[in-house]
Design goal:
348 residues, five-stranded parallel β-sheet, six-stranded parallel β-sheet, 2 domains, Rossmann fold, alpha/beta
């Protein structure tokens, strides 16, 4: 029997489509010995493995409740608790459906989080039976909200590993002897991404004799404030279909964020075979970076520490860097959309 899932998200993310694809494939395999699936065939052209996508702003609370109740899902996945209509739907459906809370904030012990912890038994836990979170730091938050160990799954985010594994195969041929001497930054041009730390650190790296270049891809509110300098190249926004030549030209990925609850790009670049330098504010480091095996971690906001890590990694031999590339790929491939879907469905 196929599981019926409702996803309550303000903006439908790519991984939701991946979930639908892999959960459907899993069910088709399960049903192959017992007869055909009774689920409707895919009909949505934008997300072809999702039966229906309903814009959030077309439904008020009553309309949302009517729609979800009529669908009678086995599982409801909701994005946090900020949307009170979503919370109310989950509260009313709890007991009829497995209601699952997703959250990606780290537990910091802030006053706001302490309040959430204290009121959770009367609010969050009345709406949500289970929790699905990215990693350990979010699991700690869920535990403090009153979820028990068996009610929590980790691994909430996933890259499209099939796509980036394909990139890895294409990139490996050109990088079989040595990685290109270029760092890659891929992200928005906003201060909390650590871009000014990155450019400052790179200038220090070059002034101290470093000979690698830095390629930056992205745009954002502070793109006009970008730092130009010797060895830095800014590409602006690049369509995903046009990214391969840039990936071919770079050897090490850097993400210097001041705040990054997870960071799916870390998973993507890992699967693509990039050694990495990551700030300690990035949640995904716990799963996709092993210190000295495929890169290094540095304190967020510390340009001097980042410059030191740049010198360290570019001072390694070609053989060591190539081994790091393979290690990044292998770490990335341990978590796939199929694993992601299976963990969510295991909450049933």
């Amino acid at each position: 029997m196929s599981a019926k899932i409702t996803i309550l998200y303000t903006e439908l993310a790519d991984y939701s489509s991946l979930l639908a694809r892999h959960s459907r494939q899993r069910e088709q395999r399960s049903n192959s010995s017992t007869g055909p699936s009774t689920q409707k065939p895919p009909s949505n052209s934008t997300y072809p493995f999702i039966d229906e996508v309903i814009p959030r702003d077309t439904l008020d609370r009553d309309g949302l409740m009517t729609k979800v109740s009529a669908f009678q899902p086995d599982l409801i996945l909701s994005s946090g608790w900020m949307d009170k209509d979503y919370v109310e739907v989950c509260r009313k459906m709890r007991g009829q459906s497995v209601t699952v809370l997703s959250l990606d904030n780290h537990w910091t012990g802030s006053a706001k989080q302490q309040v959430a912890r204290l009121v959770a038994p009367f609010t969050i836990r009345r709406a949500f039976a289970k929790a699905y979170v990215p990693g350990e730091e979010q699991r700690q938050y869920a535990l403090r909200l009153g979820f028990e160990e068996g009610e929590i799954r980790t691994g909430f985010y996933s890259a499209d590993t099939q796509k980036f594994d394909g990139f890895y195969g294409q990139l490996s041929a050109g990088k079989k002897n040595a990685l290109p001497k270029r760092f890659l930054y891929l992200g928005r041009y906003v201060e909390h991404k650590g871009i000014f730390d990155l450019w400052s650190a790179f200038a220090k790296y070059r002034q101290a004799g470093g000979d690698w270049e830095l390629w930056c891809v992205g745009t954002g509110d502070q793109y006009a404030q970008r730092v130009e300098g010797e060895g830095i190249r800014h590409f602006g926004f690049v369509q995903p279909s046009e990214m391969l030549p840039i990936l071919e030209g770079c050897g090490v990925y850097i993400l210097p964020s001041h705040f990054e609850p997870w960071g799916v790009s870390v998973h993507e670049m890992g699967v693509a075979g990039f050694p990495m330098l990551l700030s300690d504010a990035i949640g995904a480091k716990e799963q996709f970076l092993v210190e000295a095996e495929n890169g290094a971690v540095f304190p967020s906001g510390n340009g001097d520490a980042l410059a030191e890590k740049m010198h360290w990694i570019t001072g390694l031999s070609n053989e060591a860097l190539l081994q790091m590339s393979v290690r990044s790929h292998n770490l990335g491939m341990r978590h796939t959309p199929e694993v992601w879907a299976n963990r969510l469905l295991s909450l049933l």
